[in-house]
C-alpha cells in the first residue's frame, strides 16, 4: 500500500494561504511558517502530519498528496477545515 509523509499549514482564508506560499517560494522555511501561522495543532511540529495512506485524509488533501511531486509546495487547497498549503516530504508506492 502506498504511504506518504507530508506537512501542511492550515489557515482561514485563501489570501493568507497564497501570501504564505509566496513567502515560502521566496525562501522562508515551510516549517517556520507552519509554526507561526497554522491553526492546526500539527503547526507546533512544523506542520508534520507523519505517515499516512490513501483515504486517511479528506479527499482534496489526499488527491493532492498522492498525485504531486515530493518537495513541491501545493495549494492553496480548500477543504472543509479551511485552506491548506501542503508539502509532501516523502512517498512510497
Textual characterization of the structure:
The protein has a single domain, classed as Chitinase A, domain 3 (Roll). Helix content is 31%, strand content 34%. The protein is built from 3 helices and 4 strands; from the N terminus they run βααβαββ. It is globular, with a radius of gyration of 12 Å. It has helices at residues 14-25, 30-37, 59-67, and strands at residues 3-11, 48-52, 73-79, 82-92. The relative contact order is 0.30. A 4-stranded antiparallel beta sheet has the order 2-1-4-3, sandwiched between helices. A hairpin with a 2-residue loop joins β3 (73-79) and β4. With 93 residues, the protein is of the alpha+beta class. The model has no long low-confidence stretch (mean pLDDT 97).
Looking at this protein, list some descriptive labels.
31% helix; single chain; 93 residues; alpha+beta; Chitinase A, domain 3
Reading off the top of the CATH hierarchy, the class is best stated as Alpha Beta
Query: How many domains in all?
Result: 1
Structural class: alpha+beta
Proportion of helical residues: 25-40%
Number of strands: 4
Order of helices and strands: EHHEHEE
Give the rounded overall mean pLDDT.
97
CATH architecture name:
Roll
